[in-house]
Amino acid sequence: MCKKILLSLVLCGQLTLLLAQSREEQKIRQIMAKQELAWNRFDLEGFMEGYWHSDSLRFIGSKGLTFGWQNTLDNYKRSYPNPDAMGTLKFTILSVELLSGKSAFVIGKWQLTRKQDLLSGHYTLLWRKIKGKWVIVADHSS
Predict the structure, then answer these.
(1) Start-end of H helices in the chain
(2) How far apart are CA 126 and CA 103, in angstroms?
(3) Residue 21: what are its φ and ψ, rounded to 5°?
(4) Cα distance between residue 40 and residue 86, in whole Å
(5) Cys staple from 39: which of 30, 48, 56, 89, with CB 3.0 to 4.6 Å?
(6) Helix (H) or strand (E) holding 112
(7) Domains of the chain
(8) Average pLDDT of 126-141?
């Protein structure tokens, strides 16, 4: 009888943990969906809401490492100065791994469809929950 109760408690604990993880994963997925929508309406500031608004934000792209939210936004504005340059963004999330209650690792693909071409690549994102909000603290996109 004790073994059955203990097994039930362990299974309930695991189910609770899975439900909490899936809620946190959904929050991250929702933020990325909002980023995609913001990009596609030519709203770079809205797109950047998913990032940590800090000088410690790290973005690694084809031009190397950039530190800071403002520097990252400025780079986006230079690289994508108008709606034609921005095109239509599509994220495909391949995996979300919750590392703890306050950090997550996301791997995925991005695709940018423009009139003149189609660009695509992959990303790895390190997320942290800061002051109750999930934000990207490091982005490596290539």
Answers:
(1) 2-40, 44-47, 69-79, 83-86
(2) 7
(3) -65, -40
(4) 8
(5) 89
(6) strand 103-113
(7) 2-141 (3.10.450.50)
(8) 98
37-91: pLDDT as tens digits: 999 999 999 999 999 999 999 999 998 999 999 999 999 999 999 999 999 999 9
Q: Which residue type sits at 101?
A: G
The C-alpha torsion from 32 through 51 and 111 to 81, rounded to 10°, is 130
Strand order in the sheet with 64-67: 64-67, 58-61, 133-141, 118-130, 103-113, 88-100
| Three-state SS at 95 | strand
Query: Token pair of 84, please?
Result: 């034609």
